[in-house]
């Protein structure tokens, strides 16, 4: 009968299974690590059916327009993109924040106008934020448009609070 124990007294099957368990653990850890920020997260493939022509909001009547890099109106509903935070444009703390906020706003307009998208639930169990805005994650082909803004340096992953851009 062949020897099934290594020279350190550990069964050979453990040495075979150990790398597989470590690889599986790394995949699990990566998925858990990515979930809070949603970077690289692919959402369930829902058909992208929402579409409209967006411009920057102006005036008191707002039906379908972009307020700033993380807030827009769609069919009369004010939506806060739940997975990101972008620089403020209404009351920026410094000139750099105002400039970056304007770029984030313009980029969100372009992303929304780039084709059909899907509005996913916010992910933390809340439907609305404290200002009454609908919390949604905007996806296209299962990929977060908010994550695209993060990748481009125009947003940060939502941390549960506003960050400083100055």
Task: Compute the average pLDDT.
Answer: 82
Number of helices: 3
Radius of gyration: 22 Å
Dominant shape: elongated
CATH class of the largest domain: Mainly Beta
Would you count the extended β strands for me? 8
Query: What does the oligomeric state look like here?
Result: single chain
Biggest β-sheet strands, sense, barrel = 6 strands, mixed
Q: What is the helix/strand order?
A: HEEEEHEEEHE
Describe it.
- The protein is 30% helix and 18% strand.
- It is α+β, with helices and mostly antiparallel strands and 166 residues long.
- The strands form two sheets. Strands 1, 2, 3, 5, 6 and 7 form a six-stranded mixed sheet that branches. It has a two-stranded antiparallel sheet with strand order 4-8.
- The relative contact order is 0.18.
